[in-house]
Design brief:
heterodimer; A: two-stranded antiparallel ribbon; globular; B: mainly alpha; rod-shaped
Chain lengths: 246, 87
């Protein structure tokens, strides 16, 4: 019988090796490809008609665009609108990746720490480079030593500020990874209980875990939306910190 | 008639002023996850930095303990800051 963690195994579909590096096409890559194709299909279908009174698909696309645009305007301001395409791609990619993992027999690529850490580290690097290129290295380093602090306190405060700044990519990646992995593992464990408890009779023993599974699946869909939203909004807040508060 | 117009102008002014203000959404489960994670991740970062410095300077437990302590303090400070900005 399979363990609840075997759903996260990486299976190589097409082995590719370049100069000793293994860049095979795995089931995780396939899941990401399906995610991108679904987003592209959604956008192409929505952009076909351009009526003033929108059709359903057009209205959906316009709603998603408005949602992201308002999020950036609220959290960064007008100077952040140049990052709209990045935030839109980030949000849709993580959201559809989370949601596609809810289908049976599919693969949730957001439940791997190395994937979420790559995205979070890239965002961290990009935000740091934006801050340094906009304000200069000196003003950026001054951010870690707030004004009006006596000298001995500074020795304690600067490492604390640096650690707090460096903990951003870790918290960003671990939040998404832990939520997705815990949710899907819980689903599999409760699903296993259906067989264990319902061994004698399904109606008496097995129906309770099934009811629980229904509620848990609903919760997982809500968490899929929430985690994508939290990821995108935290990215907007970090961009706001980089552009303004330095 | 003029009173309705004044009320309307006030509502319009309120909406226009709050248009670009920063809003922070918070739902119960979301806040809990965020604050608990903001407590742990500086500790993890402190441990990683401490172990890294220990590898470079070959002083086995000293830097690890210092940065572990700093990480715990940073975790608590960031939790206090988040709770201040929420309440």
């Amino acid at each position: 019988m399979a363990s609840p963690l075997s759903q996260f195994e990486i299976k190589t579909l097409i082995p590719i090796e370049v100069f000793g590096y293994d860049i095979s096409f795995t089931n995780s890559s396939l899941a990401m490809l399906i995610t991108i194709s679904s987003i592209l299909l959604f956008m192409i279908l929505g952009l076909k008609s351009s009526n003033i009174i929108p059709s359903r698909k057009q209205s959906l696309l316009e709603l998603s665009y408005e949602f992201i645009a308002n999020m950036i305007l609220d959290n960064v301001g007008k100077s952040g609108m140049k990052y709209l395409s990045f935030i839109f791609s980030l949000f849709m990619f993580i959201l559809i990746g989370n949601l596609l993992g809810m289908f049976p027999y599919s693969f949730t690529w957001t439940s791997h720490i190395i994937v979420t850490f790559s995205i979070a580290f890239f965002i961290f690097l990009a935000v740091t480079i934006i801050a340094i290129s906009k304000h200069g290295l000196v003003k950026f380093l001054k951010f870690f030593a707030p004004s009006g602090v006596p000298k001995p306190m500074l020795l304690l405060l600067v490492p604390i500020e640096i650690i707090s700044y460096l903990s951003r990519p870790i918290s960003l990646s671990v939040r998404l990874f832990a939520n997705m992995m815990a949710g899907h593992t819980l689903l599999k464990v409760i699903g296993g209980f259906v067989f264990v408890l319902g061994a004698n009779s399904f109606i008496i023993g097995g129906a309770l875990p099934v009811a629980f599974l229904v509620a848990l699946t609903g919760l997982e869909i809500v968490i899929a939306f929430l985690q994508a939203y939290v990821f995108a909004i935290l990215t907007c807040l970090y961009i706001n910190d980089a552009i303004h508060l330095h | 008639m003029t009173r309705n117009l004044e009320k309307f102008r006030e509502r319009l002014k309120n909406i226009e002023e709050n248009r670009y203000k920063k809003k922070s959404e918070s739902k119960g489960l979301g806040i809990g996850m965020k604050i608990s994670l903001d407590l742990i991740s500086p500790i993890i970062v402190g441990i990683l930095i401490g172990l890294g410095f220990d590898k470079i300077f070959l002083t086995k437990p000293i830097f690890f303990l210092i940065f572990l302590l700093l990480g715990i303090i940073t975790g608590f400070i960031s939790v206090i800051k988040s709770m201040k900005s929420l309440k």
